[in-house]
Amino acid sequence: MEIQQCLSYENSTRARTRARIIGLLQQRLIKLAVMEAKNHERRAKEEDPEAYFKSLNERYSVKFACNVSLREIELPEVDVYTLRSKTGMTQAHFASYYGFTAGAVRDWEQGKRQPSRTAKLLLRVIEKMPYAVDKALEERVL
Question: 70-123, pLDDT tens digit by residue?
Fold first, then answer.
């Protein structure tokens, strides 16, 4: 009985630690993606400032209220099945690697649920900049 309690405690501790590490890695990934986007925008701004500002106006809907500008970003739908297929991973491996649950990935692929906004952001980064994800996860310790 005591051995089972110890094993149960050890497994739950590992699960919490793993979840915490995955959460921290997701935060780091988002920071890297933001840094990459800022660098890209800086380079575009330096190369052709006029085209850069024109593209900003086309990309973002900017509202002015009380002298504060707000940027609305619409996230397009991500086809999780196609994205996962491109990686060559199983649902379980894809979910484990990127910090999702296998059930969530299955439900997204079957259309039973839609990813949250945060999950959509991460899926979009995985789709557009997989190298950034790999870079963020290469120092992963589990």
Answer: 456 677 888 999 999 998 999 999 998 888 999 999 999 999 999 988 899 899
Residue 111 to residue 123: CA distance in whole angstroms? 15
DSSP-derived secondary structure letter, 74: P
Q: Which helix (H) or strand (E) holds 71?
A: strand 68-72
Residue 93's CB: how many other CB atoms inside 10 A?
A: 14
**31 residue type, one letter:** K
Tens of pLDDT, residue by residue over 111-132, are 999 998 889 989 988 998 888 8
> Strand, helix or coil at 129?
coil
What is the enclosing helix (H) or strand (E) of 7? helix 2-47
Task: Work out the number of other CB atoms within 10 angstroms of the CB of residue 58.
Answer: 7
User: How distant, in Å, are the alpha carbons of 72, 117, 124 from that of 59?
Assistant: 10, 19, 16
The amino acid at residue 34 is V
